[in-house]
Design a protein that fits this description.
Elements: E1 6-11, H1 15-26, E2 30-36, H2 40-50, E3 53-55, H3 58-62, E4 69-72, H4 79-88, E5 92-95, H5 103-116, E6 120-122, H6 130-141, E7 147-155, H7 174-177, H8 179-190, E8 194-202, E9 213-220, E10 225-231, H9 259-267, H10 270-280, H11 289-292, E11 305-310, E12 313-318, E13 321-326, E14 330-334, H12 343-355, H13 363-382, E15 386-387
Parallel strand pairs: 1-2, 1-4, 2-3, 4-5, 5-6, 7-10
Antiparallel strand pairs: 7-11, 8-9, 8-15, 9-10, 11-12, 12-13, 13-14
Helix pairs in contact: 4-5, 5-13, 6-8, 8-13
């Protein structure tokens, strides 16, 4: 990493921004020089935290000559249009998952970035996590034989966190909001192209009728297969499997059981729920950065239980490394605690922008992940296996 900093402008100063904010503050390779959000409270908070320029639109931010790259963390339905605006202004693009809501939009983003000659990176997803990269390196070493199977399972309170009305419509739910994490992890560990998907999904709460759970079977080249399960129904919490380390790497207490449902019950109405959500996001009256994303997480982020089964070992990424369950013994391959949360995202983005290093999580990768998520939705609706057409391998 050289001394030249990449100057970034953030678009969408909400929850996703608050999760990435400690990374942007602490990473030595970037400087956050501007922010944009239609909410005055968010702009006021940004000015207070950073003392830098703030705007109400992405167009204004992209007209700022100091901004070299744009971090887009707005609601999902805005990603495609805003990425194309940024590309038209010759700004490099880091866009939050999901890349976009349709494959057509993903393709338009890829073409806009190609035409402008700018980098397009899709992240953060948990495939960036250091223990996942360590597990992939162990697989690639060949020391444990061939990779045969991947299992991933995550149980959270996603459905009962405060939501905007449009988030509770059945436009994908966890299939577009959460599945990209698991799909990215499975694709990275497999290392080869995915071939097909067979899935089931569930929307079981009539008051919150969006998809809240799924199970999917993915097949890959080389006879590898992966089972992915997610539930956001706020009952079992799979962080129990991770030693009560939360998704962001922060310490978590068993005593917090039921907190999401209890807080939501106090909101009572949709207007109350929207007000609760707005109060908790960046710039809101109850916003607490230390609770959302601690500056110094105790461990690496994770997305629940993941087990990669090879001929001679099961490999389990953990918040502190990778457990290797071999033929004769089990041991931890440790990964040092992160000094900068989510630094891997910025490392990959910086290397692509400053040194021309082809990124793994580029637009083509992001489109492939969204193809799998769409296939999961269509398979559940149509009760059939879906063949995939736009997949890529880890090494390209």
């Amino acid at each position: 990493m050289d001394s030249r900093k990449l100057r970034i402008g953030a678009v969408g100063l909400g929850r996703a921004f608050s999760l990435m904010m400690p990374t942007l503050q602490r990473h030595p390779a970037v400087e956050l020089v501007a922010g944009a959000d239609p909410r005055p409270d968010a702009r006021t908070q940004f000015a207070w935290d950073f003392g830098r320029r703030n705007y109400s639109t992405i167009e204004e931010l992209c007209d700022d000559r100091e901004v070299e790259a744009v971090y887009i963390s707005t609601p999902h339905e805005l990603h495609a249009e805003q990425a194309q605006i940024a590309a038209s202004k010759r700004k490099h693009i880091l866009v939050e998952k999901p890349m976009a809501l349709t494959l057509k939009e993903c393709a338009a983003m890829i073409e806009a970035a190609r035409r402008a000659g700018v980098v397009l990176l899709v992240g953060h997803s948990h495939s960036f996590d250091a223990p996942i990269a360590c597990a992939r390196a162990l697989i690639e070493s060949g020391n444990f034989g061939k990779l045969r199977m991947i299992h991933a399972a995550n149980y959270t309170d996603w459905l009962f966190r405060p939501r905007r009305p449009e988030e509770l419509q059945d436009g994908g739910g966890v299939l577009f909001n959460q599945a990209p994490h698991q799909v990215d992890v499975a694709r990275l560990l497999a290392g080869v192209r995915a071939c097909s998907v067979r899935a089931q999904s569930g929307a079981w709460d009539s008051n919150r009728p969006t998809t809240a759970a799924y199970s999917a079977l993915l097949t890959f080249e080389n006879d590898i297969f992966a089972s992915l399960t997610y539930s956001g129904m706020a009952h079992f919490d799979s962080d129990e499997f991770m030693g009560w380390v939360g998704e962001g790497g922060q310490a978590k207490s068993e005593r917090d059981y039921g907190r999401a449902r209890a807080a939501l019950a106090l909101a009572a109405t949709q207007d109350g729920e929207s007000a609760l959500k707005n109060s908790r996001i960046y710039g809101g009256a109850k916003f607490d950065q230390a609770r959302v994303s601690p500056l110094l997480p105790m461990r690496h982020p994770h997305f629940g239980l993941v087990v990669a089964s090879c001929d001679h070992a099961d490999l389990r990424p953990m918040p502190n490394g990778v457990m290797i369950y071999g033929d004769d013994s089990a041991q931890l391959d440790p990964v040092p605690p992160p000094e900068i949360p989510r630094r891997e995202v910025i490392d990959e983005f910086y290397a692509a922008v400053m040194h021309g290093q082809p990124p793994l999580h580029d637009g083509v990768w992001g489109l492939a992940t969204m193809e799998v998520c769409h296939a999961m939705r269509d398979s559940a609706r149509e009760r059939r296996e879906i063949i995939l057409d736009h997949q890529v391998a880890t090494a390209r």
